[in-house]
Amino acid sequence: MKSISLYVDKDTCLTRLHPFAKMFYILAAVSAPLIGGALWIYGLFLAISLCLLISGKIIRKVFPLIAFSFTIIITIFLIHGLFNQENQKVLFHLGPLAFYEEGLLYAARIGLNILNMLLAFATFVLTTKPADLVDDLEQAGFSPRFGYMISSVFQIIPQMMGTMNTIMDAQRSRGMETEGSLFVRAKAFIPLISPVVSSSLINTRERAIALEVRGFDSKNKKTFLREHKLAGKDKTFMLLMALLIAGSIVWRVLTWL
Amino acid sequence: MKNLFKTKLNAACFVLIPACIGINYLGKLFASVLKLPLWLDSIGTCIGGILGGPIIGGICGAANNLIYGFTTGDSITLVYALTSLGIGVAVGIMARLGRMEKLSGAILTACVAGLTAVVISTPLNLIFWGGTTGNIWGDAVFAWSQASGLPVALGSFLDEVLVDVPDKLITLLIVYAIIKGLPKKLTSLYELDDEVASLD
Amino acid sequence: MALIEVTNLKYRYPHTENLALDGIDFKVEKGQFIGIAGENKAGKSTLCQAFAGLVPTMFRGAYGGKLLIDGAEAAKTPIAELCQKVGLVFQNPFNQLSGAKDTVFEEIAFGLQNLGIPREEIFKRVEENLKLLDIEEYRDRNPFDLSGGQTQRVAIASILAMEPQVIVLDEPTSQLDPQGSEEVFRVVEKLAKTGITIIMVEQKMEKLASYCDKILLLHKGKQIAYDTPERIFSRDDLEELGVKPPVYTQVCRALEVSRIEGEDRLYPVTLAQMERLRDQFPPTLTGRTFVNGEQEIDGQEVFQIQDLKFHYLPDIPVIEHLDLCLDARPTAIIGQNGAGKTTLVKLLKGLLKPNAGNIFFEDEDISQKTVAQLAGKVGYVFQNPDDQIFKNRVMEEVMVGPLNLGKSREEAQKLAADALEMVGLTDAAEENPYDLDLSERKMVAIASVVAMDTKVLILDEPTIAQDANGRVVLGRIVQTLSKKGKFVLAILHDMDFVAEYFERVIIMAHGKVLSDGLGEKVFYEKESLLKARLEQPHTTRLCERLGYEGAFLTAEDMKV
Ligand SMILES: Nc1ncnc2c1ncn2[C@@H]1O[C@H](COP(=O)(O)OP(=O)(O)OP(=O)(O)O)[C@@H](O)[C@H]1O
Ligand SMILES: Nc1ncnc2c1ncn2[C@@H]1O[C@H](COP(=O)(O)OP(=O)(O)OP(=O)(O)O)[C@@H](O)[C@H]1O
Ligand SMILES: [Mg+2]
Ligand SMILES: [Mg+2]
Prior knowledge:
The structure holds 3 protein chains of 3 kinds.
Chain A: H1 13-16, H2 19-36, H3 39-55, H4 59-83, E1 90-94, E2 97-100, H5 101-125, H6 130-139, H7 144-173, H8 182-213, H9 232-256
Chain B: H1 11-33, H2 43-52, H3 54-72, H4 75-79, H5 81-96, H6 103-129, H7 136-147, H8 152-180, H9 184-187, E1 197-198
Helix pairs in contact in B: 1-2, 1-3, 2-3, 2-5, 2-8, 3-5, 5-6, 6-8, 7-8
Chain C: E1 4-12, E2 21-28, E3 33-37, H1 44-51, H2 54-57, E4 62-69, E5 72-73, H3 79-82, E6 86-89, H4 104-115, H5 119-132, H6 148-160, E7 166-170, H7 178-193, E8 197-201, H8 205-211, E9 214-219, E10 222-227, H9 229-233, H10 247-255, E11 259-261, E12 264-266, H11 271-276, E13 303-313, E14 316-326, E15 331-335, H12 341-349, E16 356-361, E17 364-365, H13 371-374, E18 378-381, H14 394-404, H15 409-423, H16 438-450, E19 456-460, H17 468-483, E20 487-491, H18 495-501, E21 504-509, E22 512-518, H19 519-522, H20 526-531, H21 538-545
Parallel strand pairs in C: 3-8, 3-9, 6-7, 7-8, 15-20, 15-21, 18-19, 19-20
Antiparallel strand pairs in C: 1-2, 1-4, 4-5, 9-10, 11-12, 13-14, 13-16, 16-17, 21-22
Helix pairs in contact in C: 4-5, 4-6, 5-6, 14-15, 14-16, 15-16
The complex binds adenosine-5'-triphosphate (2 copies) and magnesium ion (2 copies).
GO cellular component, one term (chain A): plasma membrane
Pfam families (chain A): CbiQ
Subcellular location (chain A): Membrane
């Protein structure tokens, strides 16, 4: 079964860092530039993210993610560069199109924001195993029901893909053509929606019963198979991030004065 | 009417939510494989709302975006958690009002869901990406509106309407067909009157 | 006071009219092993669910009477509390997985974690149960990538590990190989000896007869009797109740071997009891004439398999160097769980592509064709019926195949109606297939393939969840289709069924063919049977124990 998680199994400091510490990093990376308000803070965090990603040996996995968000960034540049209402000063011409400075600047800010969020999330997503994250959340007092919900999403999607393949097998066993040209395959997709969705829903009934008899609603305190506490290293890292946020607040106050 | 928001948080609901999230994912996959100009990523949220009520619908929607955002690094999805929540609640309420029994009701529900999505998404679009949505057709309209000097908010609003309303219409038609085909064994699990009759 | 007391229990599912349970009344002492028997839809699973509190807490509906377990009223105790006392193993093992765990180990630990058992204890219990059910080597596998029987073992282990006082098992061995099911019975019996109370639903009457202290006989939701196996299976009205007594009892009835106790005539129900009455049996029986040497039917080759190789995971081969020729005789493939039976038939159907080697169907290499092109010739019924249901009306479902093959609607309707009649589901044509019971869904799946009128019909464990009548219906389908010149290939774990309806028998183990030939020959090759974790048919074992010379496969062979 293929997992939908982007987790890469590597033994690096970043992977070993407690998930909460990494989440704290996301918080810092997203909030500090917004609070600080200056463009260079984006640059700072982009640099930190890149360093982290390189140290985690996962920089290569990030490129497809960036490529994915490129379309939206380009649209933003086009639309604002060309049509933003504030536009006054023409920066350059591209054929018949005139790009304006104000619009481009505005687009740059949004683009940096997107890129920054993306990289910050990547440090977390690529190095954290969802099952471990859920386990840690539950150990920190998160409701096991919600924990179940999250880990079950990670199981259910590959399962649905499995169901989809099985149903597709069943359909071609009964004479529906699903192999061949792209068109044939695309056409075979449509009759799949309803049975896959229905059967997943129907499975939920059985699943609910299965959970009930396995003590899912039990009031007892749940046992964890592995203990995972915040280590000194994790705490230092979090402290550092807190300092960065504080720094951005100070900067904002200073620039105001 | 006091039943409108009534919710049972039992195992059945906690199992329904991940299934709905999975269905959302599938819908999105279909749309991208078939290169449709639609999202189709709220089929599950709507089903969650219909079976479990507005609260479960809302949780489905919000959890959907949060989980994908946090695990696939897709921060764009994350921003729209609020929209998904709104759609789930809106569809849940409409279903509890008995609107999903007939096709006409389903269409009405689609409009309500679509407008809810528009109202919540537009400010988000403005705050985060200066008004675009990332959908080619919608953004073309936005570009046109900006070129012809309409206010940003209005352009973004039009952009959203163009994308969301047809999308929700198709979504709810699919949902309607699926719900009609569900076996009684399943739907009775989510019925509200939970009294056990006595045979003594 | 007895551990379990059921008084006048009644239950009706929501949106239905008939009572699923109607006046059930019995008591179970601590450490007893109780069997529940009855035809399909008798209410066995419903009763099991009542023990676990699912009926009525989860399903609601209408409930009456009382079910006391160790002083607690099942209907009024939260399921989470009740599940520490009562463990329930479901009828369909594919449904028992928690769906949140990536490995078999964590899956078994899931229930224990919820109950807050200390960590060391969890590790200890999980290890024990992995060993007990012989699934140690799969501990790190994803529970969803296992074969049917392996899944069933995981499901049983996950409940046993919770160590409840009462264990309720709903047809727990339906997908296990014969030795595997014997082991499950032995494990469960051992538990009963340590004071755990066992309640088990089973269609394998021979097993119920030899292990149970008492049997509860149900019919249409009503309790017919609650008595010792001997008394239950000596009843004269069993046939009307849709229950077939153990083979031993059938034989004894035919030969009039019995003993009198009080006013009742009792027939033996186990091998041991039969041996005690050895002197009443005739001194010799002829049996079947042994066919020496294989008479291959020439020119009727259907499948030709050459040097076939297949694996799912690169380092775990499932099928290696398989050469096999299949002709038109009805053929059964038997073998242990995980032997690669399902994999082999999926390869035949073209659903999986071989890693090496060739498969020829009527002298054409099937790798050149798509599955859909083969669909009109080769029909395949999946092991799990839920995998192949995708319409919400039975009639529509059965018509899918014929329509895809290009038949007109009228023709398709006709074919579908015939197929439904063949499996005895004409009345269910307008229902939602998912509202039907497992046994009926399995029949719908079979009908939907039979309706396509293919040259080859492959059945993957068709007898799952079927009662005596269902088996007869299936047997008749095999016979009718064979007579029409079709090739029926079935995977089975029920040796008696194989012996009765199939000519050729193939034993598979670890992706290889261990033995191949007529039933009369294969079922006397004890070494191969043992290696493939199989057993002889009950009649065969019986005749050996009684010392008869000759070949005996079914009760009919024992005519004097
Ligand atoms: N969830 C349900 N909703 C409505 N009716 C049901 C439900 N489950 C079972 N029934 C009905 O209750 C009756 C008893 O079913 P039950 O599953 O207990 O039979 P069973 O003896 O276990 O049969 P089988 O041998 O097929 O497993 C049947 O008529 C069945 O159709
Ligand atoms: N999707 C899969 N991925 C990986 N391994 C698999 C998969 N399906 C089956 N296997 C493995 O392949 C082997 C053969 O499986 P198969 O389903 O063919 O067994 P089987 O003979 O039908 O057993 P059973 O009687 O239990 O149904 C088993 O060891 C099983 O664990
Ligand atoms: Mg049953
Ligand atoms: Mg199998």
